[in-house]
Amino acid sequence: MLERYDEAESESRGTLALDPSNAEAHEQLGTILTALGRFDEAVAAFEAALAICPGDSQAIYGLTSASKTHSTPEMAARIEGFLAANASQEQKSLLHFALGKVCDDLGDYARAFENYRIGNELAVPDAWFDSKIWAEYVERMIATFDSDFFAARKDFGIASIRPVFIVGMPRSGTTLTEQIIASHPDVAPGGELEALSGVVASLPQRLGTDEPFPESAAALNADATRDLASAYLAALDKIDAAASRVTDKMPLNFHYLGLMALMFPDAAFIHCRRDPVDTCLSCYF
Length: 285
Description:
Layout: H1 5-18, H2 23-35, H3 39-52, H4 57-66, H5 73-84, H6 89-106, H7 109-123, H8 131-144, H9 147-151, E1 163-168, H10 174-182, E2 187-189, H11 195-207, H12 222-239, E3 245-248, H13 257-263, E4 268-272, H14 276-284
Parallel strand pairs: 1-3, 1-4, 2-3
């Protein structure tokens, strides 16, 4: 979950050295290897898990995600057989996503979309979104972080170039962007850091105000802003204290761009954009 995949691989292989029949460890290893882009090895790990536990829904999902060669009519029938069994809601959700992927690869798009629909409904049965509340929140951010806000706070923050903020919608290319940047020897990939959301959550208590974010940011003085920036830089040091730059690719940090610009006026901000329909469809799948 912390995206420390090399360590995760070592721990998973350590588990399997002690217990080669542990299907969950094989499945976990497959998930890690997929994240590392080692798809052939990932497929072998998922197949090992399924050899031990043929109905492992996570392994089936992982296998179909890592390889198109398993997108066959036989695999579709196999998944449907597992769906007909007494699987849990979570297992059924994964199996429907896996079947959606197989049908998509086979060109059966109507059947694919139906399975993705059912998978989503099972995964987030109580999901809700209120566009009015969201629009009001955005208007509050615009009203708070206007030109006058920054003009009155020119000397706030820390003039560090260490943070590289990669923001955008989920599935807009943030991971690929980080991989490209982190291929430079002076850059350490931070992944999706929770540090900024923690900073925002702490604002009312730090500032002694009842105002929520973004209005609470108006109470920041120069010292408090530098304290916030220092706390964030300390989080980057835990990733790699020697790297000249450290990326933070938490996509939804775009919520906090005004605060980030106040904390780090010299930092690099990279906004990943993708066609909205592609973005939404990718999230749905």
